[in-house]
Amino acid sequence: MLDDVIQSLQAARSLVVVTGAGVSAESGIPTFRDALTGLWARYNPEDLATPQAFARNPELVTRWYDERRMRCAACAPNRGHYAVAELERRFVEAERAFVLLTQNVDRLHQRAGSKRVVELHGTLWVWRCIACGAEREEPPAAFTSYPPSCECGGLRRPGVVWFGEMLAADALARAHSALEACDVFLSLGTSAVVEPAASFVHLAKRVGTRTLEINLDSTPISDIVDCSLRGRTGEILPQVVERLGLLVES
Ligand code: OAD
User: Fold this and answer.
1) How many alpha carbons fall within 13 Å on the CB side of residue 17?
2) Mean of pLDDT values over 182-195
3) How sure is the predictor about 11, in pLDDT bands with cuts at 50, 70 and 90?
4) CATH class of residue range 2-29+77-121+167-243
5) 103 in contact with ligand 1, CB cutoff 6 A
6) pLDDT of the residue at 41
7) Alpha-carbon distance 63 to 125, whole Å?
8) What positions carry a catalytic annotation?
9) Which residues of 1-13 are buried (b: 16+ CB within 10 A; e: fewer)?
10) Do 250 and 13 form a contact (C-beta atoms < 8 A)?
């Protein structure tokens, strides 16, 4: 199975990697749905991750997101993040196409060196004014008051996609064009239940793409992909990259 993954990547001319919270778990950032440690295990998402929750209690929601942001600032990328960044480097060096579609909002991929990143669900690091729309990337320091306010006097919200909200049109467009052009699709550390990422594997299969998954638990796509590996991305991905031969120019 590991050999299958390595051989598929070796032959790939255009790779799309989709990641979820499982890739950041080994950095100490809670996932969403893991029963014991999952973020939602302690909170009800509807009370925190929706526009209605923000309208109802902007202080609670912004305080909770800023605490998550500070927690991410205190965490470091793990070996799985660095392996994904190395995979991108190898593909770019061999002039092969590579796109990372992440559902994660922690920016650990970028801190590990990933550059070709589409943040499907936005990021904790950019906050937006709900009145004038001004967006600003925040330094690694907590806000001093909640909800934070904009120079225009409006309230500022985290630049993440909330339940019930659409993804940014440009992010979705970049994802679809990458999926239509790829010949290998690799899903890492995601439960594959939240749309639209949950349907990406079907888009990939429709264009004859070889589909792979590395995840700690089985997911709804485990029986759909060509090859599904159980395990931790922080352990498996470094082995994959280490054993991946030289990618000759396509
Ligand atoms: P989930 O918490 O739903 O799924 C995390 C997956 O990672 C699970 O299937 C775990 O088995 C797996 N996992 C945990 N640790 C792992 C490890 N070390 N190595 C490999 N796999 C591991 O998180 P997501 O799939 O990212 O969206 O959730 C998708 C979206 O749901 C999130 O982006 C968020 C949430 O609602 C929004 O907030 C809009």
Assistant:
1) 33
2) 96
3) very high
4) alpha beta
5) yes
6) 64
7) 14
8) 121
9) eeeebbebbeebe
10) yes
Ligand 1 touching residue 209 (CB < 6 A): no
Place of tokens 């509807």: 46
Question: What distances in angstroms separate CA 142 from CA 73, 124, 125, one per listed residue?
Answer: 10, 12, 11
Q: Would you say the CB of residue 189 lies under 6 angstroms from ligand 1? A: yes
CB 187 within 8 A of CB 15: no
Look up residue 180 and give its two tokens: 């239509």
Q: Does ligand 1 lie within 6 Å of residue 83's CB atom?
A: no
Pocket test for ligand 1, best of 36, 166, 191 (most atoms within 8 A of CB): 191
172: nearest Cα among 136, 121, 107, 96: 121
- The architecture (CATH level 2) of 30-74+123-160 comes to 2-Layer Sandwich (3.30)
Centroid of ligand 1 to alpha carbon of 27 (angstroms): 13
Beta strands, E only, 38-166 = 97-102, 117-119, 122-129, 135-137, 156-160
Q: Tell me whether domains 2-29+77-121+167-243 and 30-74+123-160 share a fold.
A: no
Domain ranges of the chain: 2-29+77-121+167-243, 30-74+123-160
Residue with tokens 């709804």, as numbered in its chain: 220
pTM (predicted TM-score): 0.95
